[in-house]
Every structure is written in C-alpha cells, then in structure tokens.
Amino acid sequence: MSYEISAGRAVRAHRPPRPEPRSDRERWQADYARRLFVSDLFVLVLIVGFAQLIRFGGAGIEPPLTAKLPLEVGYFMVSTVLVLAWSAMLTLGGTRSPRVIGSGTDEYRCVVSASLKLFGGIAILSLLLRIDIARGYLAIALPLGMLGLMAERRAWRHWVAKRRAQGDYRTAMLVVGSPEAARAMVAAFSRDTDSGYQVIGVCTRDEGTLADRVLEVGCHEIPVLASDHDVIDAVRRTGADTVAVTATDNLGPADFRRMAWELDELGAELIVTPGLVDIAGTRLTHRVVADMPMLHVEKPQYDRAKSIRKDVFDFCFASAALLAIAPSLLLIAAAVKLTSRGPVFYLSERIGRDGHPFRMIKFRSMYADATPHLDALLESNGALFIDAPTDPRITPIGRVIRKYSLDDLPQFLNVLRGEMSIVGPRPQHQREVDSYDGVMRRRLLVKPGLTGLWQISGRTALTPEDALRLDLSYVENWSMVLDVLLIAKTIGTATRH
C-alpha cells in the first residue's frame, strides 16, 4: 500500500520536471515499461492483423467500413486505429505503471479491464455514429488480444524472474519498525522472492548502541543501520530505493509527511504496511476518514468456504476430471497390479471437516509386504529414511507415480463422496490432529483438499509453521476465484514436471 501525501504533490508542482530517473529502481522500471510498450504493440499488430485476415481473407480483399462518413474507410485503417487506441488504453489503464508491472493478478486484471473498456467505447461510438463494424472481426480481435497480451506479460515476468535471480531488476529496501514487526516483514519479503524486494537493512527503535546490531530472521542476519528517527540518513548512506514502514511507536503523522517529502527528493518510494499477514486483498477495503487512510478488514470467510456452490463446483470438476483421466487411471491401476502383489489402492485414514475421519484413496506405491524391506533398510542405514529415493519399500512403478503425484488421482473419488474438496488444507492424520491447539484446529473448519496453497508452495520444503500458515490463510480468505487460480497453478506445476 503506497503512502502518498497531497501536500507533497503540491511541493513538487513548484519544481521543474526531472525527466531522468533518480534511482536504480526508477531506471529499471522505466526500462521495463519501454519493453512492455514495444511488445504490447507487437502483439496487438499480430492479433488485429490476424483478425482482419481471418474475417476478410488474405487475397487483398478489404471491404470498406459501413458508415455514414464523408470518406470511404477501409479495414486496414480501422485496424491501424484499433491498434493505436488499444495501446493508448493500456497506457491510460495503468498496465505499465510501476505499481502494477510484474504483480501478476493485478497486472492481468488491468489488461482485461483496459481492453473491455476500449471495446465498450467502440460499441457506444458505433451506435451513436451509426458505424457498422464487422462483429466477427471484433469477436476475434478482443478475446485473442487479451489472451495474447496476458501471455506476453507472463513471458516478461519469467524473464524478470531470471534477471532477478542474477541480481538485476531488484529493489533495495529498508524496513522501518519495531523489532518484532520488522522481523515479520523481513520474513514475508523473504518468502516472496518474485516481488523483487531485497531487504538491505532495518531501522528500528534505539535500544542502546546500534553498532554491529543485527536482526535475526530465520537463517538470515539483517543489519540494523539506524534508529527509526534517522531513516533519511540511512537511505543516503545505502542508496536504498524503497522504505517500508510497519508498526512503530516512534513515528507520528507529521513524521510520515516529512519522510515522504524527503524520500521524494531522493527518488525513493515510501510504503506503509499495517502489519497484517495472510489477509487476501478481497477482504480489504480502503477509504479515507478525516484525512486519514483506513483499512477495513472483512471477517474470515469460514462460512463461505463451506458454501453449496463450492460443493457443486467440486462435484462437477471431479466428475469431469474422472471422465477425462479414466484411461490413465486404468493404465496406472494395471501397472500397479502387474508389477507387485497386493491391492491396487491404498486406503489411509485421515481427518476431515469437523474432525470426522474418512479413508483417503491412493494408488498403492509400496510393496504389500513392506515390513521385511523396512527391516533391511534399518539394518543397512541404521536409521529410518521415509520417502527417501533409496527406500526399498517403494515399488519401481511407485517411484514414478509419486514423482508426478499420480498416486493422488483416485482422491477425486473422495471428492465425489463429499469427504474431500478439490482445493483445501492438507489432509491430516489422527496423531497430528491430537496435537492441535485452538489455532491449528481451524484447519478442520473446511474439507481437506487434493491441492492447496501448500501444494504450489513447495510442499516438500515447507516447515510445519509455513504449512499451518498457508492452510489457515486459505481457510480465512476463501473465494471461488482463489480456487480456480490454485487449480490452474497446480496444473501448471504438474505439467512442468
């Protein structure tokens, strides 16, 4: 959430414009915006040209536009104007602004919104001016154009991610706040490496001498550069591009205003966070009361996550998925049966919504007589390595189906039986549930899922604390849009393997 001061804009109005970027962040953002402008224009030329080609043919046929105009206008001119107007609408819609570029969902939403507004304006103008533009031409250009633009933006995001992995296109950030709040913010930025923010130091309350002080966050040590009253001096010394302020008792409204003015002189950005963690944007409403920005946080979405429409969606999606993958299920079942003795399926007791147990269905990936193999493992290694590549309990076909998560496909049957959901928290064992405290039991408010936030966040590398945080975040922030996005990301992750 950016913190902007109207008085600061009034002060800037008296200064001459500065066309040159004032910081590394502004330089790479300007460079990135130029690249987006050129690639957007290229995509639009291709898509609009393709729409004209499909609608009117490629043999030099270009019928005139049906309209009461003094001059005859051909569709080549219409396509040219459409490309230029579309590009201009993308600019006016803020799709290349520093607040949006590289932000994923927000960027795509702005692209779709700008495109729909353009075609809505075209429809209104054609009605008022009685211009009859071929509907098939527009019907091809609009959806293909939006898809093409979003695919292009996604490709650029991958390019930026690679550059950031090499140390480029990063934003050097100072975190300002109390030690506890600063530690939470640093941890949050550490988890979201795709954001491009690199915390280079912390400014916190003065507790004795600040010399050689560090803030320990996990396995990282972040240097404490100054007190929260000396932020501007720290920015000058480090060349930081952004200052992120979280909960602090030492900065008042006048301090924020002065900080905003001075950071603007340095070309640095000011961000203020209320310290909320794992709250979805759909639950936040921003408004200004008595010249003070306020954030209203909606209550957690527990009831919505148990709605009938989620159950209907789960049933329909699971039915369609089972029909689509039925041949694959038969092949896997045959492979499991023919390569080792024992049943095709493995039934594991898990705990579902409201603490009710159920039997989760999986393809068997271990030998039915796994105990002798386990004894051999203990004798050879002296320790138990569960899920290790050398685990002799896992069958050859079991290694394959585990690698690609194919052993979980029969859980669509659990969804049809109403025991699981397509998206939800991780299914838990009884021994895990027995150790739950009041916070952890919130996982049981909804059905466990085949996939979820934990699935697309590197489930094998998650700590128990991170897994709990992701599960609770899903339960509290549920929406159908979130479900669809998580399903799409899960499919993308599975296909990349």
TrEMBL record:
Region listing for Disordered, in residue ranges = 1-25
**The keyword Ribonucleoprotein is annotated on this UniProt entry:** no
Q: Identify the keywords attached in UniProt to this record, alphabetized.
A: Membrane, Transferase, Transmembrane, Transmembrane helix
Subcellular localization, as worded in the UniProt entry: Membrane
Q: Does the keyword Mitochondrion apply?
A: no
Q: Per the UniProt record, which residue ranges are transmembrane?
A: 32-54, 74-93, 114-131, 137-156, 312-336
The topology of this chain with respect to the membrane is: Multi-pass membrane protein
A cellular component term, taken from the record's GO annotations: membrane
The record places domain Bacterial sugar transferase at 310-493
Q: Which GO terms describe its molecular function?
A: phosphotransferase activity, for other substituted phosphate groups
- Family stated for the protein in its record: Belongs to the bacterial sugar transferase family.
Protein's UniProt name: Exopolysaccharide biosynthesis polyprenyl glycosylphosphotransferase
